[in-house]
Amino acid sequence: MFCKLTTADFREVLNVVNDAAIAYENKIPTDRWKVPYMPVKELEEEIQNGVQFYGLIENNTLLAVMGIQPVSDVTLIRHAYVLTSQQRKGHGEKLLKHLLNLVKTSKVYVGTWEAASWAISFYQKRGFELVSTEEKNKLLKKYWSIPERQVETSVVLELKRQL
Protein backbone atom coordinates (compact mmCIF):
# COMPACT_ATOMS: atom_id res chain seq x y z
CA MET A 1 0.00 0.00 0.00
CA PHE A 2 1.26 3.47 -0.88
CA CYS A 3 0.86 6.29 1.58
CA LYS A 4 1.81 9.91 1.98
CA LEU A 5 4.19 10.06 4.93
CA THR A 6 4.01 12.64 7.72
CA THR A 7 6.19 13.78 10.60
CA ALA A 8 4.61 10.95 12.61
CA ASP A 9 6.54 8.59 10.32
CA PHE A 10 9.94 10.25 10.94
CA ARG A 11 11.53 7.32 12.73
CA GLU A 12 10.47 4.81 10.11
CA VAL A 13 11.59 7.07 7.24
CA LEU A 14 15.00 7.57 8.84
CA ASN A 15 15.27 3.83 9.46
CA VAL A 16 14.72 3.04 5.76
CA VAL A 17 16.99 5.84 4.51
CA ASN A 18 19.87 5.09 6.83
CA ASP A 19 19.60 1.32 6.35
CA ALA A 20 19.65 1.60 2.56
CA ALA A 21 22.32 4.33 2.49
CA ILE A 22 24.89 1.85 3.79
CA ALA A 23 25.38 1.01 0.09
CA TYR A 24 27.07 4.41 -0.34
CA GLU A 25 29.76 3.76 2.27
CA ASN A 26 33.18 3.52 0.59
CA LYS A 27 31.54 4.44 -2.74
CA ILE A 28 30.83 8.15 -2.45
CA PRO A 29 33.56 10.62 -1.48
CA THR A 30 34.56 10.11 2.15
CA ASP A 31 34.01 13.80 2.85
CA ARG A 32 30.32 13.36 1.92
CA TRP A 33 29.72 10.15 3.94
CA LYS A 34 28.36 10.49 7.46
CA VAL A 35 26.63 8.38 10.08
CA PRO A 36 23.74 8.58 10.23
CA TYR A 37 23.59 9.31 6.52
CA MET A 38 20.43 11.38 7.05
CA PRO A 39 20.06 12.86 10.52
CA VAL A 40 16.70 14.08 11.87
CA LYS A 41 17.55 17.74 11.22
CA GLU A 42 18.25 17.06 7.54
CA LEU A 43 14.95 15.21 7.10
CA GLU A 44 13.13 18.11 8.78
CA GLU A 45 14.84 20.59 6.43
CA GLU A 46 13.97 18.56 3.35
CA ILE A 47 10.30 18.52 4.35
CA GLN A 48 10.39 22.26 5.10
CA ASN A 49 11.85 22.78 1.62
CA GLY A 50 8.90 21.05 0.01
CA VAL A 51 9.91 17.39 -0.30
CA GLN A 52 6.82 15.25 0.22
CA PHE A 53 7.71 11.70 1.18
CA TYR A 54 5.70 8.67 0.17
CA GLY A 55 6.11 5.14 1.35
CA LEU A 56 5.37 1.59 0.42
CA ILE A 57 4.01 -0.34 3.39
CA GLU A 58 3.42 -4.08 3.60
CA ASN A 59 2.43 -5.94 6.76
CA ASN A 60 2.65 -2.69 8.76
CA THR A 61 6.31 -2.25 7.77
CA LEU A 62 7.66 0.68 5.79
CA LEU A 63 9.72 -1.00 3.06
CA ALA A 64 10.56 1.94 0.79
CA VAL A 65 10.50 5.72 0.81
CA MET A 66 10.74 8.25 -1.97
CA GLY A 67 10.22 11.97 -2.11
CA ILE A 68 8.72 14.23 -4.72
CA GLN A 69 9.48 17.94 -4.83
CA PRO A 70 7.95 20.46 -7.20
CA VAL A 71 10.50 23.23 -7.78
CA SER A 72 9.58 26.10 -10.06
CA ASP A 73 8.73 24.50 -13.42
CA VAL A 74 10.05 20.97 -12.76
CA THR A 75 9.54 18.02 -10.43
CA LEU A 76 12.39 16.34 -8.60
CA ILE A 77 12.39 12.75 -7.39
CA ARG A 78 14.29 12.85 -4.10
CA HIS A 79 15.62 10.44 -1.49
CA ALA A 80 14.65 7.08 -2.95
CA TYR A 81 15.51 4.24 -0.58
CA VAL A 82 14.43 0.63 -0.04
CA LEU A 83 15.30 -1.39 3.04
CA THR A 84 18.37 -3.49 2.29
CA SER A 85 16.47 -6.70 3.04
CA GLN A 86 13.73 -5.71 0.59
CA GLN A 87 15.80 -4.58 -2.39
CA ARG A 88 15.45 -6.15 -5.84
CA LYS A 89 11.81 -7.08 -5.21
CA GLY A 90 10.21 -4.31 -7.29
CA HIS A 91 9.35 -1.99 -4.40
CA GLY A 92 11.38 0.93 -5.75
CA GLU A 93 9.83 0.64 -9.18
CA LYS A 94 6.30 0.50 -7.75
CA LEU A 95 6.91 3.58 -5.62
CA LEU A 96 8.52 5.48 -8.51
CA LYS A 97 5.54 4.73 -10.75
CA HIS A 98 3.21 5.96 -8.02
CA LEU A 99 5.12 9.23 -7.69
CA LEU A 100 5.33 9.77 -11.44
CA ASN A 101 1.53 9.58 -11.56
CA LEU A 102 1.46 12.60 -9.21
CA VAL A 103 3.71 14.77 -11.40
CA LYS A 104 2.13 17.92 -12.78
CA THR A 105 5.14 19.32 -14.67
CA SER A 106 6.57 18.41 -18.06
CA LYS A 107 10.12 17.90 -16.75
CA VAL A 108 11.12 15.35 -14.10
CA TYR A 109 14.67 15.01 -12.80
CA VAL A 110 16.47 12.82 -10.33
CA GLY A 111 19.95 13.36 -8.95
CA THR A 112 22.22 10.73 -7.48
CA TRP A 113 25.84 10.10 -6.75
CA GLU A 114 28.02 9.49 -9.80
CA ALA A 115 29.47 6.44 -8.02
CA ALA A 116 26.02 4.91 -7.42
CA SER A 117 25.98 2.88 -10.63
CA TRP A 118 23.12 0.71 -9.31
CA ALA A 119 20.92 3.79 -8.82
CA ILE A 120 21.79 5.21 -12.24
CA SER A 121 20.95 1.86 -13.83
CA PHE A 122 17.66 1.68 -11.90
CA TYR A 123 16.52 5.02 -13.32
CA GLN A 124 17.79 4.33 -16.83
CA LYS A 125 15.75 1.12 -16.96
CA ARG A 126 12.70 3.20 -16.08
CA GLY A 127 12.92 5.85 -18.77
CA PHE A 128 15.45 8.32 -17.36
CA GLU A 129 18.52 9.46 -19.29
CA LEU A 130 21.70 11.07 -18.04
CA VAL A 131 22.07 14.74 -18.93
CA SER A 132 25.41 16.22 -19.99
CA THR A 133 27.87 17.38 -17.34
CA GLU A 134 27.26 21.00 -18.32
CA GLU A 135 23.48 20.57 -18.01
CA LYS A 136 23.88 18.64 -14.75
CA ASN A 137 25.83 21.50 -13.20
CA LYS A 138 23.17 24.04 -14.24
CA LEU A 139 20.30 21.87 -13.01
CA LEU A 140 21.86 21.02 -9.63
CA LYS A 141 22.58 24.67 -8.93
CA LYS A 142 19.13 25.82 -10.07
CA TYR A 143 16.85 23.21 -8.50
CA TRP A 144 18.77 21.59 -5.63
CA SER A 145 20.28 23.06 -2.47
CA ILE A 146 23.42 20.96 -2.15
CA PRO A 147 27.08 21.76 -1.46
CA GLU A 148 29.44 22.35 -4.39
CA ARG A 149 31.31 19.14 -3.54
CA GLN A 150 28.10 17.18 -4.03
CA VAL A 151 27.48 18.92 -7.36
CA GLU A 152 30.95 17.81 -8.48
CA THR A 153 30.31 14.16 -7.59
CA SER A 154 26.69 13.75 -8.71
CA VAL A 155 24.74 13.10 -11.88
CA VAL A 156 21.27 14.14 -13.00
CA LEU A 157 18.88 12.05 -15.04
CA GLU A 158 15.83 13.36 -16.88
CA LEU A 159 12.66 11.37 -17.49
CA LYS A 160 12.38 10.88 -21.23
CA ARG A 161 9.68 8.24 -21.41
CA GLN A 162 7.24 6.95 -18.83
CA LEU A 163 6.86 3.23 -18.21
Number of E-state strands: 7
Mean pLDDT figure: 95
Q: Largest sheet, order of strands side by side?
A: 1-2-3-4-5-7-6
**What is the count of distinct domains?**
1
Distance between the termini: 20 Å
* CATH-derived architecture: 3-Layer(aba) Sandwich
- Strand share of the residues? 25-35%
Radius of gyration, rounded? 15 Å
Basic shape: globular
Overview of the structural elements:
The chain has one domain: 3-Layer(aba) Sandwich (Aminopeptidase). It contains six helices and seven strands, in the order E-H-H-E-E-E-H-E-H-E-H-H-E. The chain has helices spanning 10-20, 40-48, 91-100, 117-124, 133-143, 148-152; strands at residues 2-4, 52-58, 61-71, 74-82, 107-113, 128-130, 154-159. Strands 1-2-3-4-5-7-6 form a seven-stranded mixed sheet, sandwiched between helices. The two termini are 20 Å apart.
Q: Which features characterize this protein?
A:
163 residues; alpha+beta; Aminopeptidase; seven-stranded mixed sheet
